[in-house]
Design brief:
Eight copies of one chain form a homooctamer. Chain A has 146 residues and is of the alpha/beta class. Chain A is built from six helices and five strands. In chain A, α1 crosses α6 and α2 packs across α3. Chains D and E meet through loops of D and loops of E.
Chain lengths: 146, 146, 146, 146, 146, 146, 146, 146
Amino acid sequence: MTFVVYLAGQIHDDWRETLIEKVQEKDLPFEFVSPQTNHDLSDDIGEQVLGEQPGKYYKDDAASDINNFRTQVLMNKADIVIALFGEEYRQWNTAMDATTAVNKGKPLIIVRPESLIHAIKELSNKANVTVETIDQAVSVLEYVTI
Amino acid sequence: MTFVVYLAGQIHDDWRETLIEKVQEKDLPFEFVSPQTNHDLSDDIGEQVLGEQPGKYYKDDAASDINNFRTQVLMNKADIVIALFGEEYRQWNTAMDATTAVNKGKPLIIVRPESLIHAIKELSNKANVTVETIDQAVSVLEYVTI
Amino acid sequence: MTFVVYLAGQIHDDWRETLIEKVQEKDLPFEFVSPQTNHDLSDDIGEQVLGEQPGKYYKDDAASDINNFRTQVLMNKADIVIALFGEEYRQWNTAMDATTAVNKGKPLIIVRPESLIHAIKELSNKANVTVETIDQAVSVLEYVTI
Amino acid sequence: MTFVVYLAGQIHDDWRETLIEKVQEKDLPFEFVSPQTNHDLSDDIGEQVLGEQPGKYYKDDAASDINNFRTQVLMNKADIVIALFGEEYRQWNTAMDATTAVNKGKPLIIVRPESLIHAIKELSNKANVTVETIDQAVSVLEYVTI
Amino acid sequence: MTFVVYLAGQIHDDWRETLIEKVQEKDLPFEFVSPQTNHDLSDDIGEQVLGEQPGKYYKDDAASDINNFRTQVLMNKADIVIALFGEEYRQWNTAMDATTAVNKGKPLIIVRPESLIHAIKELSNKANVTVETIDQAVSVLEYVTI
Amino acid sequence: MTFVVYLAGQIHDDWRETLIEKVQEKDLPFEFVSPQTNHDLSDDIGEQVLGEQPGKYYKDDAASDINNFRTQVLMNKADIVIALFGEEYRQWNTAMDATTAVNKGKPLIIVRPESLIHAIKELSNKANVTVETIDQAVSVLEYVTI
Amino acid sequence: MTFVVYLAGQIHDDWRETLIEKVQEKDLPFEFVSPQTNHDLSDDIGEQVLGEQPGKYYKDDAASDINNFRTQVLMNKADIVIALFGEEYRQWNTAMDATTAVNKGKPLIIVRPESLIHAIKELSNKANVTVETIDQAVSVLEYVTI
Amino acid sequence: MTFVVYLAGQIHDDWRETLIEKVQEKDLPFEFVSPQTNHDLSDDIGEQVLGEQPGKYYKDDAASDINNFRTQVLMNKADIVIALFGEEYRQWNTAMDATTAVNKGKPLIIVRPESLIHAIKELSNKANVTVETIDQAVSVLEYVTI
C-alpha cells in the first residue's frame, strides 16, 4: 500500500526536496506531488499559454486558471496533504489548499514556525496535526506505516 | 425569499456595519451573520470558557475551538459568503472561510484592494466575483434581486 | 407546502410571464425565480459593477461572473428547474443550468420545439420530462399537486 | 502517476487524433477516452440494439439512452475533461458533459474559437481554463507534469 | 417542529387515509405526501400531457417520466418515508422509493404482511423498522414525539 | 482500462454464465461480480454463521445481514450494474440493487421480458438502458469499447 | 435565526433539563431535541410495537430499530449536537451520535468529566469543543449569538 | 479483486494476528490495516513528535491528533471495517471508527461478546453484521468470495 502526498505551500526554498529526501532515506511508501514550484513559470504560465494579457490583473487571472487546474488534478489524487507556511508572504493559496484538504476529507498536516501560532490558529485547529519542522512532519507520515 | 449572508474577514474596522447599512437603505432581502467581531473576546473566549491554559499556544488553540464552532454553525445557515481581505494581517481564517464556501457550493464574493491582486489570485479565481469596494459587493447582492 | 421553480432558458421573449400567469390562474403553490431576463443588463453587469474592461472577452467574463453568482444563489433555493430551449441561439447557459439541475438531484422539465429533438436528445434523456409547450409544462407542475 | 482524460465535443473532424498525437509526441502520461465518434453509429445505436422504433423521436431517445450510458461509464473514470466546441451545431451534449465535469469536481479545459466567446461565456466561466487551440490545451495538460 | 412523511406503496386500497386519520386523531405533528393515488390517472398521465404514444411501452414510459418527476419533487421534501407492500402486484416502484430513502439518509418504515417476510428480507434489513400493520407504523411515528 | 460489472438479479437460472461467456467470446475488458448465486447458501448463511435462530423471520433477517454485506462490498467496487428481472418471484432485492446503482451514479442496464414492461416502468425509467435479452445487454457493454 | 440542538448522551439524570433551563433563562434562540429519555420505554419500545420477541438479543434489536429511527429523524433536523458522557456505562450510542455529527458536518460539543479525558481523547479530538460542565456548554452556545 | 480491511478495536490482545492468520490459511484476498497496536507508542506519540506537553490532557490531545491522522489515512483506503469490542475499557475510539464506517458507506462487521449485547445495541443495529467470534467474522469475509 502506497500513499500520494500533496505538498502545498511556499515555493521560495527547497523544503520539498528536504522532506522527500528524508522520506526516501527511511524507505517509506509515499509518493509526492506539488503545485508548480518554478515561481517564474507559475507567474507566467497564463500568458505563456493564452498570449499577452491587457494588464497585471488579467495576467494573474490567466495564470491562476492554470495553476488551479494543476492543483485540482493533483490534489484529487492525493491521500494526504502537507501544507507548509513560512514567515514571509500571505500564502493564501496554501491556506486554500489546506482548507480544501479538510473539506474533502483528506488528512492534513500543517507545518508552521512558532511565530505564526496566533495568525493560523483557526486553520491549524482544523488540521489533523500541526508541527514546526520538516522532521516532525516526516515522523507523522512514518507513524502511518509502523 | 430572503437570503442569509455570512460576512467573513477582518474584524479591525466597521466594514460590516457599512455594508449592512447600504443593504438596508436599499431595503434588500438579506440577513447577515459573521464571525465574532469583538477581537478581544475572540482571542480570550477559550480561556473564558475553559479556564486558564498553560501558555499562548494552548490559549489560542482553545479559542480557535470555539471560534470554529461559531463559524461552522453560522456558515451552515448561509446562502452566500462575502469575504473581505484588508492590507494588514495574514487573514488565514478569512481564506479558510472563503475556501469552505467554494467547497460547499455557497456563492462567494471576495472584496480586496488592488494591492492584493497578485497575492490572492488563486483564491480569487475560485470565487464567483472579486471586487474592490463595499459598494461593488452590494451591487452584486442587489443583482440577485432585480 | 410550496415549491420554488427556477426558470432557465432564453430571455428573448416573455415565456416566463406566460407560464407564471397560467400557474397563477390555477392557483398552484409554485414560486418562480430566474436568471437575469433584462438582456442588456445581463451583458453589461460586469462593466457596470467592475468598471470598463479592456475588450469584449474581458467584458463578457466579468458579466458571466455575476450572472453565475445570481444563478447559483437562486438555483440553490429551487425545488424544480424548468429549462426552455428555443430555435435561435446556442443557449449553452441554459444547457448548463439544466445539467446542473440533473447533477444536484433537482427534478427537471425541458421545453423544446419538435425541431430540436435530435440536437438535444442526450440532455433531454437526462431530464425527468421533456415537453413542447408551456401548457404541457404547467400540466406537469400541476400533477405534483393533485 | 497517469491520468485519464475524457475528450468531450464534436465528432465531425479529427481533433481528438490531433490532440492525442501531440500528447504522445511529448510522451506525456495521459490516457484518452471519448464519446462514440462514429457519427452514424452514434445515431443508430438505439435501433441497432433495441430494434426499429416508431419514429424519429423514439429512435433518438433510444440512441441517447446508450450514448449516455457510455459517457457515464467513461466519465466516471476520467481525472480530467476537455470539451471542444466548434462553430457549427448546437453541441448541447458537449455542454452537458462539460457541466457534469464541473459538478463532479473534475478539472475542465474548454476549447472554443474566438467567435464563440459571447455565447459560451457562462460555461467558460465555470471551466478551469478556456483556450482557443488544441496546442494550448496540450500545453495545459503538460503543465500538470512539469 | 413538524415532519413531512412520504407514503410510498400500493394505490389499490385506502391505507393512506387510514394511517393519516390515526395520526390526526392523536394530533401528531406529521404532514403527508404520496405518489399519485388515482391509478388511472397515474397510468394515463403520459398520454394526457404528451399526446397519444405509438404503443403500450411508449405510453408507459411517458407516464413514468411524470410519475418519477412527482415522486422526486415530493420525496426531496420528506423527512421520513413509509413504504407499504401488499400481497398482490410486483410493486417495484415501491421498492425503488424505499431504497432511495435509505440511500438519501431518510429514515424508513416498511409495512408488509407476514407472508412477504422472505421475499423482502434484504430490503427490510436496510429499513430502520419493519412492521406488519398501520397501527404499528403510527406507533413508530408517535415515538419520535414522546 | 477494464470495468467491473455487478450482475444483480435472479439466481434461479444460469443467465450470468451465458452473459459472461458471450463477453469473453468477444474478448471485452469486463470483470464480473454478483450476489450469492447458490440459493440454498444464500438462504442459510445467517444460521450457518450465527447459529440456529428462533424462527423463520429471524433466520431470514440473519441471512439478509450477510447477503447485504456481500452486496455492499462488491457493488462499491462496480463501475456498471446489470439487473435482470424474470417473470417469477418478487425480486425486491434486485429492485433494491438497481435503485442503489442509480442513486450512487453507477450506470445501470435493466434486462426484463416484455411482459414486465408495465410493472417495472418507473424503475426502468431511471435506468440508463432497458433491454429484453442478454445479447442486447452484451451489445450495450460492447458499445463502451468501440 | 433559531437553531435546533440535539442533546445526545446518558438518560440517567436530568442534565438536559438543567441545560435547557439555563438557556431559557438567558433567552437564547435554541430549540432542543433528544433521544428517548424514558429509559424503560427506550428498552421496551421494540416489544411494545412489534410484540414479544424470542429472547433478550431480539428484544434489544427490536428496540434499537426504533430508537435509531427516532435519532435519525431528529438529528437530521439538528444544527448543533451536544453529547454528554458520564462516568458510568459504556454509552456507545452517545459515541455513535457524536461521531455521526462530525461526519455530517454538524458542529459538536462534548461534555465529559476530567476522569474520562484519556478514554475519550480520539473522539474529543474530532469534536469542535470539549468541556466539563453544563455551564461551559451553555457558554459555547451563547457565543454563537453574541 | 482484493479488498482492504481496517481492523478497529482493542489493542490489548492479539485478536488481529489470530484473524489475519485464519484468513491467510484460507488464502482469501484480503489485506489488513489497523490503528497503532503498540499501546505505549499510541499514548506517547504526541509528545514523541511534538515534545513534552504541559500536562496529561495536553499529552493526550497531542497523541490523539496523530492517532486520528493515521486512522483517517488508513480508513480512507478500506473497503471493509471490522470493529471488535471487548469486555474491558470504554473503547470509544472503536465506536467512533465503527460509526464512521457506517457514515462513509463502508460495510461493517462488529465482533462483541454476548455480555455486551445490550450496551452496544444501537451501534450493532447500524452494522451490517454483528458476530461473537473471530471465526464468525472470517466466515463473513469468506462469504464475499464464494
